[in-house]
Design goal:
- There is one protein chain.
- By secondary structure, the protein is of the alpha+beta class.
- The protein has one domain (38-339): Sandwich (Jelly Rolls).
- Helices cover 28% and strands 20% of the residues.
- The chain has nine helices and 15 strands.
- The strands form three sheets. An eight-stranded mixed sheet has the order 2-3-11-8-13-6-5-4. A five-stranded mixed sheet has the order 1-10-9-12-7, with no helix packed on it. A two-stranded antiparallel sheet has the order 14-15.
- A hairpin with a 2-residue loop joins strand 9 (234-238) and strand 10 (241-244).
- Helix 3 (52-68) crosses helix 6 (151-176) and helix 4 crosses helix 6.
- The radius of gyration is 20 Å and the shape is globular.
Length: 345
C-alpha cells in the first residue's frame, strides 16, 4: 500500500483516488463558529504546586472539563518546549525516510510494538483516510525505530515526561471522582500501564472537501495527550455540533478515553472527534494514549456503583482484548464501547 506522502508527491496529482472519497452524511452536525465553544484550559502548575485552595479549584476544573467536554488544554505543564519541537521534528524526519526504509516497520499485527502504515486499518477500511502513521509501544517496554538516528533518544525523554504529566493528571481526575489520588493508578496497574506514541502525518490534499484525515471516533485508554505542528485540523463533537480545536502553542490537548468512561461508570465520557485535511500545509500530530496494563480487566469502580441509583453501565473486559477489538475493526464513533455497555433492562 502506497503511503499518502508518496501519493501526494506523484507528479500532476490534482484529484484524489476514489478509494479516499469519504461520503459525509447530509445531516452531518454543523460546525460551530461561536468563540464561546472552546475547550477548557487547565493550568497544570496550579495542580502540582499551587496553594491548597488553588489545587482544590484545579481538581474541580479537571472534573468539570472531563464531564462537560471530555477534552481540555493543559498549559504550564513543565515539558520543555524544545523537547516538544524536537519530537515533532524527529517524527517529520521519520516520514521523510524512503518508502523502503519505512516498510521495515510495516508490522503484521495490530498489537506489534512498532507499526508504520497508512489510513487506519487498510484490511477493513472501506474508505481510506488521508493519513500516514507510526505507532510505537513505549511503556512498560520501550521500543523505537533505529532511524532517524536521534529518534530513540528524543522519544525516550519525551515519553518519560508525558508519562509523568499524565500520571499527575490522573491523580487529579481520580480525586475529582472522589476516589483519592492514587485510586486509578493502583486499580488499573498504571506502573505497567500501556503507553503508545503515535505520529500522524496529514499531507496537503488536492480535494480536502472529499477526504478525511481520521473519521469520527473515540480513543481507547484513560487519557490521550496530543501536540501538533501548529496546523489545525482537529474537531470535537460537543452538544450536537463540531467544534474546531484552536491550538495554543506549547500546550497539550488532552482527551478522555473509553476506559475512563468505563472506570467512572459513565460519569466522564469519551468524546467523538475527527481530523480534517487541507490543500496547503502538512499537519503532523503526536498522540500519546495512556491506558491500564494490557492484562487488567477494566470495569466500573465499585465506589461509583450504587445498585439502586447508579447500576453498573459496563461489563469488565481485559484491556488487551478491547484494544485488539478496536484496532482490528472499522473506526465508527464509539461503536467499540457497545461491546461492554450494559443496556437498561
Amino acid at each position: 500500500m502506497i503511503s499518502i506522502k508518496a501519493l501526494t508527491e506523484s507528479p500532476g496529482l490534482t484529484s484524489i483516488p476514489p478509494t479516499y472519497t469519504f461520503t459525509r452524511s447530509p445531516v452531518d452536525e454543523p460546525v460551530s463558529d461561536d468563540p464561546e465553544d472552546s475547550i477548557p484550559i487547565v493550568d497544570f502548575s496550579l495542580l502540582t504546586s499551587g496553594t491548597p485552595d488553588q489545587q482544590s479549584k484545579t481538581i474541580d476544573q479537571l472534573g468539570k472539563a472531563c464531564q462537560d467536554w471530555g477534552f481540555f488544554m493543559v498549559i504550564n505543564h513543565g515539558v520543555p518546549e524544545s523537547l516538544m519541537k524536537a519530537m515533532a521534528d524527529a517524527c517529520g524526519e521519520f516520514f521523510n525516510l524512503t518508502e523502503e526504509e519505512k516498510r521495515e516497520y510495516g508490522g503484521k499485527h495490530v498489537l506489534d510494538s512498532i507499526r508504520c502504515g497508512t489510513s487506519f486499518n487498510t484490511s477493513v477500511d472501506k474508505v481510506l483516510f488521508w493519513r500516514d502513521f507510526l505507532k510505537i509501544f513505549v511503556h512498560p517496554q520501550f521500543h523505537s525505530p533505529s532511524k532517524p538516528a536521534a529518534f530513540r533518544e528524543i522519544s525516550l525523554e519525551y515519553c518519560k515526561r508525558t508519562r509523568e504529566l499524565s500520571k499527575e493528571l490522573l491523580k487529579g481526575i481520580s480525586m475529582s471522582l472522589g476516589l483519592g489520588d492514587t485510586y486509578i493508578e493502583n486499580a488499573l496497574n498504571l506502573e505497567s500501564g500501556l503507553q503508545i506514541l503515535i505520529a500522524n502525518l496529514y499531507p496537503p490534499c488536492p480535494e480536502p472537501e472529499l477526504a478525511m484525515g481520521m473519521p469520527p471516533h473515540s480513543d481507547h485508554g484513560l487519557l490521550t495527550l496530543l501536540i501538533q505542528n501548529g496546523i489545525s485540523g482537529l474537531q470535537v463533537q460537543h452538544q450536537s455540533k463540531w467544534v474546531n480545536v484552536n491550538y495554543i502553542p506549547n500546550a497539550f490537548i488532552v482527551n478522555v478515553g473509553d476506559h475512563m468512561e468505563i472506570m467512572s461508570n459513565g460519569k466522564y465520557k469519551s468524546v467523538v472527534h475527527r481530523v480534517f485535511v487541507n490543500e496547503k500545509a502538512t499537519r503532523i500530530s503526536i498522540v500519546t494514549p495512556f491506558g491500564p496494563s494490557l492484562e487488567t480487566v477494566v470495569s466500573p469502580a465499585p465506589e461509583l456503583v450504587h445498585r439502586e441509583t447508579n447500576a453498573p453501565a459496563y461489563t469488565g473486559m481485559k484491556y488487551k482484548d478491547y484494544l485488539h477489538l478496536q484496532q482490528s475493526s472499522q473506526l465508527d464513533g464509539k461503536a467499540c464501547l457497545d461491546h461492554v455497555r450494559i443496556l437498561p433492562a
